[in-house]
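Suppose a colleague, Dr. K., hands you the sequence of a protein chain of 157 amino acids and asks what its three-dimensional shape might be. Before reaching for any lab equipment, you can write down a predicted structure in C-alpha cell form. Begin with the sequence itself:
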Amino acid sequence: MTDYEYMNATTGNRIDPSLLSPAELDQLAELVIEEDRPALVGREGVRIDLPDPIFHHLVRVINMMREGKAIVLFPEEETFTTQAAANFLGMSRQFLVNLLEEGKIPFHRVGAHRRVYFRDLLAYQKQRDNKRHQALKQLAQSVDDEGLYNADYTGEE
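The predicted structure, expressed as C-alpha cells, is then:
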C-alpha cells in the first residue's frame, strides 16, 4: 500500500479494514483469544497487560474489521452537526432539531449553527433505548397478565 493509499484509508479517526489482510486480521483474532492476555511491549521491553475495558474493546474492533467494517473513533467531546447527529440516531434532521429545541438533547451554537456533543447523543440514545426496553417489558407483562400469552402454542390446530 502506498503512503497516499494508507493516508486515505486512515483519514481522521477512521480505520479501514482494507489496511490489513484477512490473514492478518485472523492472526490478531487468534492472539486476543489465547490464554495469555495480550500486552503492550515498549522499546525497552517493558510489558503492560491490557486492562479489561481496552482488551474487550480491541476484541470488538478486530471482529468488526474481520466483517469488513471500518472503525471510527470519536472522543465524547466531538461535536456533530444536526444532520450528522440525526444520522447517528437514525432519525430525520427536523425530528432531531425538535428534540433539541424541546430541551431533550443539550446543544450549543457555533455562530447560527447548532452543534451537539457526542456524549449527549450517547446519553440520549441510552435513555431512549432504556425507555423502549421498559415499554416492551410492560407490554409483555400485560399480555401475560391477561392470559393472552401461551408458551405451549405451536400454531397447529
